[in-house]
Protein: Epimerase
Organism: Lentzea atacamensis
Amino acid sequence: MVFGASGMVGRGALRECLLDPDVDSVVTVGRAPMDVTDARHRHVVHADFRDLSPVADELAGANACFYCMGVTSAGLTEAEYLPVTHDYALEAARVVGGTYVYVSGEGANAESKTMWARVKGRTENELLALDRPVFVVRPGFIQPRHGITSRTRIYRYLYSWSSWLFPLLRRVAPAYVTSTENLGRAMVALAKGAQAPKLLRSDEINRLA
């Protein structure tokens, strides 16, 4: 089960799911229809992520749930940032079974004075307290691969401008750099039962991939 499959991270996760021969089927959930070209992929359209009860039957039976939904915090108040980052993530965990993987970010900390880091850190803590297998991945700088791009204009510009830096960053700061490919592979590995810490930074994501 993939939430946020139309975004950069979610598209990477979906791609790696469909490339893995051990994955029998993938269900994505979104507000808008999605082109489905693989027989193993089914898309569920749902508008209100605060309440997934109306589509709970369509989301049943999953071995894993990847929560990849996200929104930039730029220009948003905490009240505006909270739903996608926290509320929807907890609702997905309530409805969808199996191993739960939450895509957070480097620097998340429930005690932080920075709004986005505080909200993500709080969400991490609440998810990790659940009585089920939960993993939090904290990527830093993510290199888009295989034609995948960010839906956020400023991020697209940043990734395009800085693409030449990735080889250097991987050498000097491996704990902060990963790719959509490695992130997706690591998430699939977690779904398949790989041994890993509950919190994974970029270097651990890359190792698991």
The radius of gyration is 16 Å. The chain has one domain: 2-208. DSSP finds seven helices and nine strands in the chain. The chain has a mean pLDDT of 90.
